[in-house]
Amino acid sequence: MPAMMRIAAVFCLSLALAAPAAAKKTTTAKPDDGLTAVMAGEFALQAGRLPEATQWYLQAARAESGDAGLAERATRIALLAGDDKSAAQALKLWQQRGKRTEVMRGAEATLALRQGDLAAARRELIALLREPDDLGWRFALAALTSGQRKPEVVSKTIGELLDANALPGKLPAWIGFGSLAQRLDQKDLAERIVGEAVKRFPNEPRIALLHASQLRQIGKPDEAAKLLATLEPASLLVPELRSGIAYEYDAMGQPVAAAQAMARGPQDNRTYGTRASLLAKAKDQAALAALYDELRKQAASPDPQRLLLLGEIAQFLERPQEALEWYQRVPGGQERVEARLRIANSLYELGRKDEAFAAARKMQADAAIDDTARQAAYLLEAELRQKDKDDAGEFDALARGLAAWPDDNAILYARALAWERRDRIDHAEADLRRILVTEPENTAALNALGYTLADRTNRYQEALELIDRARAAEPDDAAIIDSFGWVLYRLGRIDEALVQLRRAYTMQKDPEIAAHLGEVLWVQGQKDEARKYFEESRKLDPENRSLLRALQKTGA
Q: Where are the TPR repeats (predicted)?
């Protein structure tokens, strides 16, 4: 259940889940009653029963013989459910009723890839890539992402598209396909795409940046660094390049070089903050102190954001007293509210714990600030109590917050996580279900509860339904896809689990996803590849709980 990161996708199933979850029994529709079937399908969808929703929508599409929209919806739900047979039936109805659009071609390509009909997939992908607008190649890229079963199959298909000279002569398309090859960890394919892109766009810095990324991934950091150095002058003319260059240096384990890249060109609080974070990561206290001194000289005017930044850098330098003083200088306004939260944290770091807790409580009682800030003060106190290993104090802070706001979902969510850390799964479940009573479509709570049930209990089918509800609302969220893969693994559906976990890790390099992928690969007997993912997880977060459990379970 990693941190959330949205990946835009073309095949997004936007389905409202505002109604409460349906009971296990649904109304039986007559074969010719399309409206009843649609209603039953919606209830099944809201309850997270995607296979059942697929059948209802397919029945509705058949009953409403002229409705192309229902056939399209049935196709999308079937694809989301992984029911390729029903998807093929719904797609046939859609083809009979609707216009041959890029959306339909994308669905056809996705299904063909899933069914292993690579010739048909290639035909539809080429047709999409030859569309004159920018949508065609984007649909093709989305189909390759959502239709993949094995990275090597997608790699082969893209290679055949290159052989056919099908990729359009558009810079974003080449960047998109090159990035996909890199995320799939298909080094030969990435090298081929990038090499061709360099020939086509020899003076384009964004292609050079992609080339540097490809060199880094194949273990040629020196060559990548040389190429990045040639891009630095261009970053002065194209400021957004700075972030990309800095990312590549940081990914190579050179956060100081990344900070230096960010130092080129105009500076603002965002770039200064990024530089400070990178230098703190590198533990380069001298460079961080130099940046701190530079900003201190500019602090004569009371810029609230700059004062907050100076306090943050002082914390990086482990100077909590100075951090406290900067935060205390922040004048009124919203920044002052943020400063008060940081003041409490600084007091805690100074060992003045009673004052820290008192500062948080003063904010909790301050009717002059908005409810969101007061709720944040309860969450901060709970966090500080947790750091202090004061279980009773942590739960007391959360309980007081809920006494003031009985249905505040942020506080309920924090308490659910606190219960889960203490192995009180029943209590965690109760709090997450309280969230879903007031906000049935809360995907974070649906995902958290589904993942918790999959990970910590044997209630796998119930977990699957909860995760499927989240997937219906956000089918391209990496955290939710990871949870889906994990529950499939717990259900013993190993091959399906690997598909989903690989897809999640393609979308988001997260330590928890890597740990899950490593464990499933280990169980499948692919131990060398499993060790690779365990090592990647360790690099991202050596203390990740899923990683530690996986290492203990596998003995890797």
A: 511-544
- The pLDDT score that the predictor gives to residue 147 is 76
| Per-residue tokens: 344 | 């409490």
Main-chain phi, psi angles of 477, to 5 degrees:
-95, 125
Say if residues 377 and 385 touch (Cβ distance below 8 Å).
Answer: no
Instruction: Assess contact for 68 and 94: CB atoms under 8 A.
Output: yes
Degrees to nearest 5, angle at CA 198 with 195 and 200? 110
d(CA 274, CA 267): 11
CA distance 472 to 462: 15
pLDDT digits (tens, 9 = 90+) for 249-290: 998 989 999 999 999 888 999 999 999 999 999 999 999 999
User: DSSP characters for 330-383?
Assistant: --SSHHHHHHHHHHHHHHHHTT-HHHHHHHHHHHHT-TTS-HHHHHHHHHHHHH
- The 8-class DSSP code of residue 134 comes to S
Q: Is residue 356 within 8 Å of 384, Cβ to Cβ?
A: yes
CA end-to-end span of the chain: 22
pLDDT band at 217 (very low <50, low <70, confident <90, very high): confident
HSE on the CB side for 206, CA within 13 Å?
12
> How far is residue 111's CA from residue 166's CA, in Å, rounded to a whole number?
20
Closest-CA residue to 375 (of 344, 345, 402, 353): 402
Q: CB-side exposure of 511: number of CA atoms within 13 Å?
A: 16
- Contact predicate 308/270, CB 8 Å: no
- Angstrom CA distances, 173 to 170, 207, 545, stand at 5, 11, 38
3-state secondary structure of 15: coil
Distance (Å) of CA 200 to CA 36, 189, 193, 194, 197: 55, 17, 11, 10, 5
pLDDT for 23 beyond 70: no
CA distance 556 to 546: 14
- C-alpha to C-alpha distance for 62 and 395, rounded to whole angstroms: 54
Give me the pLDDT at residue 32, please: 53
Q: Which helix (H) or strand (E) holds 7?
A: none
Place of tokens 């060992």: 351
Contacts of 441 (CB under 8 A, 6+ apart): 16, 17, 18, 473
Largest CA distance in the chain: 77
